[in-house]
Design a protein that fits this description.
Length: 386
Protein backbone atom coordinates (compact mmCIF):
# COMPACT_ATOMS: atom_id res chain seq x y z
CA UNK A 1 0.00 0.00 0.00
CA UNK A 2 1.40 3.42 -0.89
CA UNK A 3 1.83 6.13 1.73
CA UNK A 4 -0.86 8.20 -0.02
CA UNK A 5 -3.33 5.33 0.02
CA UNK A 6 -2.58 4.70 3.67
CA UNK A 7 -3.38 8.28 4.55
CA UNK A 8 -6.62 8.24 2.53
CA UNK A 9 -7.82 5.25 4.51
CA UNK A 10 -7.16 6.81 7.86
CA UNK A 11 -9.59 8.80 9.91
CA UNK A 12 -7.87 12.08 10.55
CA UNK A 13 -8.24 13.33 14.06
CA UNK A 14 -7.11 16.92 14.45
CA UNK A 15 -6.12 18.29 17.83
CA UNK A 16 -3.12 19.94 19.40
CA UNK A 17 -0.71 18.31 21.76
CA UNK A 18 -1.81 21.14 23.94
CA UNK A 19 -1.28 24.80 23.22
CA UNK A 20 2.26 25.93 23.82
CA UNK A 21 2.36 26.00 27.60
CA UNK A 22 4.10 28.58 29.69
CA UNK A 23 7.18 27.35 30.73
CA UNK A 24 13.82 25.08 27.26
CA UNK A 25 17.70 23.67 25.55
CA UNK A 26 18.38 21.61 22.59
CA UNK A 27 21.15 20.43 24.71
CA UNK A 28 22.10 17.34 22.82
CA UNK A 29 24.14 16.69 19.75
CA UNK A 30 27.59 17.89 18.92
CA UNK A 31 29.84 16.83 16.10
CA UNK A 32 28.64 15.53 12.78
CA UNK A 33 29.13 12.64 10.47
CA UNK A 34 27.42 10.17 8.24
CA UNK A 35 29.18 6.95 9.14
CA UNK A 36 28.73 4.49 11.92
CA UNK A 37 26.52 1.48 12.36
CA UNK A 38 23.92 2.45 14.92
CA UNK A 39 21.98 -0.67 15.77
CA UNK A 40 18.21 -1.10 15.94
CA UNK A 41 16.06 -3.89 17.30
CA UNK A 42 12.49 -4.18 16.11
CA UNK A 43 9.92 -4.47 18.86
CA UNK A 44 12.33 -5.19 21.69
CA UNK A 45 11.09 -4.19 25.10
CA UNK A 46 8.20 -2.11 23.81
CA UNK A 47 4.68 -3.22 23.04
CA UNK A 48 2.91 -2.98 19.72
CA UNK A 49 0.30 -0.72 21.22
CA UNK A 50 2.24 1.23 23.85
CA UNK A 51 5.05 2.71 21.84
CA UNK A 52 6.98 3.51 24.99
CA UNK A 53 10.66 2.94 24.37
CA UNK A 54 13.44 2.21 26.78
CA UNK A 55 17.08 3.01 26.17
CA UNK A 56 20.14 0.97 25.33
CA UNK A 57 23.53 2.24 24.22
CA UNK A 58 24.25 1.88 20.54
CA UNK A 59 20.67 2.17 19.36
CA UNK A 60 17.28 0.76 20.17
CA UNK A 61 14.00 0.45 18.32
CA UNK A 62 10.45 0.37 19.61
CA UNK A 63 7.34 0.23 17.45
CA UNK A 64 3.69 0.94 18.20
CA UNK A 65 0.30 1.36 16.64
CA UNK A 66 -0.86 0.61 13.05
CA UNK A 67 -1.39 3.67 10.82
CA UNK A 68 0.88 6.55 9.85
CA UNK A 69 4.50 5.39 10.23
CA UNK A 70 7.05 7.74 11.78
CA UNK A 71 10.73 7.08 12.38
CA UNK A 72 12.49 8.91 15.21
CA UNK A 73 16.25 9.52 15.25
CA UNK A 74 17.15 11.03 18.62
CA UNK A 75 20.12 13.16 19.55
CA UNK A 76 23.18 11.60 21.10
CA UNK A 77 22.57 11.10 24.79
CA UNK A 78 19.45 9.08 24.08
CA UNK A 79 16.15 8.63 25.81
CA UNK A 80 16.02 8.88 29.56
CA UNK A 81 17.71 12.28 29.68
CA UNK A 82 14.65 13.81 31.41
CA UNK A 83 15.17 16.72 29.06
CA UNK A 84 15.52 17.27 25.30
CA UNK A 85 15.14 13.76 23.86
CA UNK A 86 12.42 12.87 26.33
CA UNK A 87 10.47 15.95 25.25
CA UNK A 88 10.65 14.77 21.63
CA UNK A 89 9.50 11.33 22.75
CA UNK A 90 6.59 12.95 24.57
CA UNK A 91 5.57 14.66 21.33
CA UNK A 92 5.47 11.49 19.24
CA UNK A 93 3.59 9.64 21.97
CA UNK A 94 1.03 12.44 22.02
CA UNK A 95 0.69 12.16 18.24
CA UNK A 96 0.16 8.41 18.62
CA UNK A 97 -2.55 9.10 21.19
CA UNK A 98 -4.27 11.56 18.86
CA UNK A 99 -3.98 9.70 15.54
CA UNK A 100 -3.07 6.11 16.43
CA UNK A 101 0.14 6.34 14.39
CA UNK A 102 3.06 3.91 14.58
CA UNK A 103 6.54 5.10 15.51
CA UNK A 104 10.01 3.67 15.82
CA UNK A 105 12.63 5.13 18.16
CA UNK A 106 16.29 4.90 17.19
CA UNK A 107 19.10 6.17 19.39
CA UNK A 108 22.57 6.81 17.99
CA UNK A 109 25.39 5.75 20.26
CA UNK A 110 27.56 8.58 18.91
CA UNK A 111 27.28 11.39 16.34
CA UNK A 112 28.80 9.32 13.53
CA UNK A 113 25.82 6.94 13.65
CA UNK A 114 23.21 9.63 13.02
CA UNK A 115 23.42 9.63 9.24
CA UNK A 116 23.35 5.84 9.09
CA UNK A 117 20.16 5.67 11.16
CA UNK A 118 18.52 8.35 9.00
CA UNK A 119 19.45 6.36 5.91
CA UNK A 120 18.25 3.02 7.27
CA UNK A 121 14.84 4.46 8.06
CA UNK A 122 14.61 6.13 4.64
CA UNK A 123 15.50 2.85 2.91
CA UNK A 124 12.99 0.81 4.91
CA UNK A 125 10.15 -0.82 3.00
CA UNK A 126 8.53 -2.53 5.98
CA UNK A 127 7.35 -0.10 7.05
CA UNK A 128 7.74 2.60 4.44
CA UNK A 129 8.01 5.66 6.69
CA UNK A 130 5.69 8.59 6.04
CA UNK A 131 7.93 10.87 8.14
CA UNK A 132 11.37 10.70 9.72
CA UNK A 133 11.96 13.09 12.64
CA UNK A 134 15.58 14.05 13.29
CA UNK A 135 16.13 15.45 16.76
CA UNK A 136 19.03 17.79 17.51
CA UNK A 137 21.42 20.04 15.62
CA UNK A 138 23.88 17.18 15.11
CA UNK A 139 21.44 15.79 12.52
CA UNK A 140 21.79 18.71 10.08
CA UNK A 141 24.81 17.80 7.95
CA UNK A 142 23.95 14.14 7.36
CA UNK A 143 20.31 15.06 6.81
CA UNK A 144 21.24 17.57 4.10
CA UNK A 145 22.84 14.68 2.22
CA UNK A 146 20.18 12.10 2.95
CA UNK A 147 17.32 14.46 2.06
CA UNK A 148 18.84 14.87 -1.40
CA UNK A 149 19.42 11.15 -1.77
CA UNK A 150 15.87 10.27 -0.68
CA UNK A 151 14.00 13.15 -2.27
CA UNK A 152 10.58 11.47 -1.92
CA UNK A 153 10.99 10.97 1.84
CA UNK A 154 9.53 13.57 4.23
CA UNK A 155 11.84 14.64 7.05
CA UNK A 156 11.59 16.96 10.04
CA UNK A 157 14.57 18.37 11.90
CA UNK A 158 14.33 19.98 15.33
CA UNK A 159 16.91 22.54 16.52
CA UNK A 160 18.44 23.28 13.11
CA UNK A 161 17.46 24.17 9.55
CA UNK A 162 18.05 22.10 6.43
CA UNK A 163 17.22 23.85 3.18
CA UNK A 164 15.68 20.99 1.23
CA UNK A 165 12.15 20.80 -0.24
CA UNK A 166 11.38 17.60 1.68
CA UNK A 167 12.55 18.86 5.10
CA UNK A 168 10.45 20.83 7.58
CA UNK A 169 12.68 22.61 10.09
CA UNK A 170 11.85 23.77 13.61
CA UNK A 171 14.05 26.12 15.62
CA UNK A 172 13.62 27.95 18.92
CA UNK A 173 14.62 31.27 20.42
CA UNK A 174 16.38 29.68 23.36
CA UNK A 175 18.06 32.96 24.25
CA UNK A 176 14.67 34.52 25.01
CA UNK A 177 13.61 31.77 27.40
CA UNK A 178 17.04 31.80 28.99
CA UNK A 179 16.71 35.54 29.54
CA UNK A 180 13.64 34.85 31.64
CA UNK A 181 15.32 32.34 33.94
CA UNK A 182 18.38 34.58 34.08
CA UNK A 183 16.21 37.46 35.20
CA UNK A 184 14.75 35.18 37.87
CA UNK A 185 18.22 34.13 39.06
CA UNK A 186 19.40 37.73 39.14
CA UNK A 187 16.45 38.90 41.20
CA UNK A 188 16.69 36.06 43.73
CA UNK A 189 20.46 36.09 44.23
CA UNK A 190 20.09 39.76 45.17
CA UNK A 191 17.70 38.77 47.97
CA UNK A 192 17.82 36.87 51.25
CA UNK A 193 15.82 33.92 49.93
CA UNK A 194 15.41 30.38 51.18
CA UNK A 195 13.03 27.61 50.14
CA UNK A 196 13.14 23.83 50.13
CA UNK A 197 16.75 22.72 50.56
CA UNK A 198 18.28 25.88 49.12
CA UNK A 199 19.14 29.41 50.13
CA UNK A 200 20.99 32.39 48.69
CA UNK A 201 24.26 33.55 50.20
CA UNK A 202 24.51 37.30 49.52
CA UNK A 203 27.54 36.98 47.19
CA UNK A 204 25.74 38.24 44.05
CA UNK A 205 27.09 35.33 42.00
CA UNK A 206 25.27 32.79 39.82
CA UNK A 207 26.42 30.09 37.40
CA UNK A 208 25.81 28.55 33.98
CA UNK A 209 26.83 25.02 32.94
CA UNK A 210 26.69 24.09 29.26
CA UNK A 211 27.13 20.70 27.62
CA UNK A 212 29.33 21.27 24.59
CA UNK A 213 30.30 24.79 23.58
CA UNK A 214 28.37 25.22 20.34
CA UNK A 215 26.61 28.28 18.89
CA UNK A 216 23.28 26.79 19.99
CA UNK A 217 24.28 26.37 23.65
CA UNK A 218 25.94 29.77 23.61
CA UNK A 219 22.46 31.18 22.96
CA UNK A 220 21.40 29.77 26.32
CA UNK A 221 24.42 31.26 28.02
CA UNK A 222 23.97 34.65 26.36
CA UNK A 223 20.28 34.90 27.19
CA UNK A 224 20.87 33.82 30.77
CA UNK A 225 23.65 36.34 31.31
CA UNK A 226 21.55 39.12 29.77
CA UNK A 227 18.64 38.29 32.07
CA UNK A 228 20.89 38.27 35.13
CA UNK A 229 22.37 41.64 34.18
CA UNK A 230 18.88 43.02 33.55
CA UNK A 231 18.16 42.36 37.22
CA UNK A 232 21.45 43.80 38.50
CA UNK A 233 24.52 44.63 36.41
CA UNK A 234 26.77 43.98 39.43
CA UNK A 235 25.97 40.27 39.58
CA UNK A 236 28.80 37.95 38.52
CA UNK A 237 28.00 35.07 36.19
CA UNK A 238 30.33 32.06 36.23
CA UNK A 239 30.23 29.95 33.03
CA UNK A 240 31.72 26.56 32.20
CA UNK A 241 31.20 23.78 29.64
CA UNK A 242 31.32 20.12 30.56
CA UNK A 243 32.23 18.93 27.07
CA UNK A 244 29.59 16.20 27.28
CA UNK A 245 25.83 15.72 27.26
CA UNK A 246 25.63 12.76 29.58
CA UNK A 247 28.27 13.16 32.29
CA UNK A 248 26.53 13.93 35.60
CA UNK A 249 29.79 13.55 37.53
CA UNK A 250 31.37 16.34 35.51
CA UNK A 251 28.26 18.48 35.93
CA UNK A 252 28.41 17.97 39.68
CA UNK A 253 32.12 18.78 39.83
CA UNK A 254 31.72 22.01 37.86
CA UNK A 255 28.76 23.10 39.98
CA UNK A 256 30.54 22.32 43.23
CA UNK A 257 33.37 24.57 42.07
CA UNK A 258 30.95 27.36 41.17
CA UNK A 259 29.23 27.10 44.54
CA UNK A 260 32.63 27.24 46.25
CA UNK A 261 33.23 30.46 44.32
CA UNK A 262 30.02 32.06 45.54
CA UNK A 263 27.31 30.92 43.11
CA UNK A 264 23.98 30.23 44.79
CA UNK A 265 21.89 29.58 41.63
CA UNK A 266 23.17 27.51 38.68
CA UNK A 267 21.37 27.10 35.33
CA UNK A 268 22.30 24.23 33.03
CA UNK A 269 21.89 23.57 29.33
CA UNK A 270 23.72 20.26 29.33
CA UNK A 271 21.31 17.37 28.80
CA UNK A 272 21.93 14.46 31.16
CA UNK A 273 25.02 16.22 32.53
CA UNK A 274 22.60 18.58 34.25
CA UNK A 275 21.60 15.89 36.73
CA UNK A 276 24.95 16.53 38.38
CA UNK A 277 24.13 20.23 38.62
CA UNK A 278 21.00 19.38 40.63
CA UNK A 279 22.86 16.92 42.81
CA UNK A 280 25.52 19.50 43.68
CA UNK A 281 22.93 22.20 44.42
CA UNK A 282 21.04 19.84 46.70
CA UNK A 283 24.11 18.65 48.59
CA UNK A 284 25.39 22.21 49.05
CA UNK A 285 22.07 23.83 49.93
CA UNK A 286 21.86 26.07 46.85
CA UNK A 287 19.50 26.35 43.89
CA UNK A 288 19.40 25.17 40.26
CA UNK A 289 17.42 25.90 37.12
CA UNK A 290 16.49 23.15 34.65
CA UNK A 291 16.16 23.07 30.88
CA UNK A 292 13.98 21.72 28.03
CA UNK A 293 11.36 20.08 30.27
CA UNK A 294 9.97 21.02 33.67
CA UNK A 295 12.73 19.15 35.44
CA UNK A 296 11.14 19.60 38.84
CA UNK A 297 8.66 17.04 37.49
CA UNK A 298 10.92 14.84 35.38
CA UNK A 299 13.49 14.68 38.21
CA UNK A 300 11.28 15.09 41.28
CA UNK A 301 14.00 13.98 43.73
CA UNK A 302 15.65 17.36 43.06
CA UNK A 303 12.47 19.43 43.10
CA UNK A 304 13.42 20.94 46.47
CA UNK A 305 16.24 22.90 44.78
CA UNK A 306 14.86 23.49 41.25
CA UNK A 307 13.53 27.05 41.14
CA UNK A 308 12.33 26.86 37.55
CA UNK A 309 13.06 25.35 34.15
CA UNK A 310 13.47 26.96 30.76
CA UNK A 311 11.07 24.78 28.83
CA UNK A 312 11.47 24.34 25.11
CA UNK A 313 8.49 22.73 23.41
CA UNK A 314 10.33 20.13 21.39
CA UNK A 315 7.31 17.91 21.93
CA UNK A 316 5.08 20.38 20.12
CA UNK A 317 7.44 20.60 17.15
CA UNK A 318 7.41 16.81 16.76
CA UNK A 319 3.66 16.64 17.26
CA UNK A 320 2.96 19.42 14.75
CA UNK A 321 5.13 17.83 12.11
CA UNK A 322 3.40 14.45 12.45
CA UNK A 323 0.02 16.17 12.44
CA UNK A 324 0.89 18.04 9.25
CA UNK A 325 1.79 14.80 7.47
CA UNK A 326 -1.38 13.19 8.78
CA UNK A 327 -3.46 16.09 7.46
CA UNK A 328 -1.65 16.36 4.13
CA UNK A 329 -0.31 19.82 5.05
CA UNK A 330 3.38 19.02 5.45
CA UNK A 331 5.48 21.99 4.33
CA UNK A 332 8.98 21.05 3.32
CA UNK A 333 11.57 23.72 2.68
CA UNK A 334 10.28 25.87 5.54
CA UNK A 335 11.60 26.82 8.98
CA UNK A 336 9.37 27.68 11.93
CA UNK A 337 11.11 29.59 14.71
CA UNK A 338 9.35 29.60 18.06
CA UNK A 339 10.11 32.05 20.87
CA UNK A 340 8.38 33.69 23.83
CA UNK A 341 5.72 35.23 21.61
CA UNK A 342 4.80 31.86 20.14
CA UNK A 343 5.08 30.24 23.59
CA UNK A 344 7.65 27.83 22.23
CA UNK A 345 10.01 28.69 25.10
CA UNK A 346 9.23 29.99 28.57
CA UNK A 347 10.16 29.93 32.23
CA UNK A 348 8.16 27.42 34.27
CA UNK A 349 8.38 27.65 38.05
CA UNK A 350 9.31 24.51 39.96
CA UNK A 351 6.42 22.45 41.27
CA UNK A 352 7.72 22.56 44.85
CA UNK A 353 9.48 25.94 45.01
CA UNK A 354 7.38 27.99 42.60
CA UNK A 355 4.88 29.01 45.26
CA UNK A 356 7.73 30.22 47.48
CA UNK A 357 9.03 32.74 44.95
CA UNK A 358 7.87 36.26 45.92
CA UNK A 359 5.03 37.73 43.88
CA UNK A 360 6.98 40.92 43.16
CA UNK A 361 9.68 38.78 41.52
CA UNK A 362 7.08 37.02 39.38
CA UNK A 363 5.59 40.40 38.46
CA UNK A 364 8.98 41.66 37.28
CA UNK A 365 9.41 38.55 35.14
CA UNK A 366 6.02 39.13 33.56
CA UNK A 367 7.01 42.68 32.71
CA UNK A 368 10.35 41.70 31.20
CA UNK A 369 8.66 38.97 29.18
CA UNK A 370 6.25 41.49 27.67
CA UNK A 371 9.17 43.75 26.78
CA UNK A 372 11.04 40.94 25.04
CA UNK A 373 7.93 39.94 23.09
CA UNK A 374 7.30 43.58 22.12
CA UNK A 375 10.90 44.03 21.03
CA UNK A 376 11.66 46.60 23.70
CA UNK A 377 14.34 44.26 25.05
CA UNK A 378 16.65 42.71 22.46
CA UNK A 379 18.22 39.54 23.81
CA UNK A 380 21.70 38.72 22.47
CA UNK A 381 22.57 35.30 21.02
CA UNK A 382 26.28 35.41 21.80
CA UNK A 383 27.82 35.67 25.27
CA UNK A 384 30.29 38.25 24.05
CA UNK A 385 27.42 40.57 23.19
CA UNK A 386 26.13 40.75 26.77
Amino acid sequence: MSNIDKRRRQMIKVGGAGAFAAGLAGCLGGGNGDGGQGTTTDGGDGTTEGGDAGTTEGGKTTQSGDSLDVGMVYATGGLGDNSFNDMAHKGIKQAKSEFGLSFRNTEPGNPTEVGTLQRKLAQSSNPNYDLICCIGFVQADPLARNAQRFSDQKFTIVDESVDQPNVASYRFKEHQGSFQVGHLAGLLTDMDFSAGKGKTNGDLTVGFVGGKETPLIQKFEAGYKAGVKHANSDIKVLSAYAGAWNDPAQGQSITNSMISNGADIVYHAAGGTGTGVFKAAQSKGRFAIGVDADQSKTLPKYSNVILASMVKRVDEAVYRSAQNVQNGSFKGGTTQTLGLKEKGVAAVYGQQLGSKIPEDVKSKLQKSRKKVVAGDISVPKKPGKV
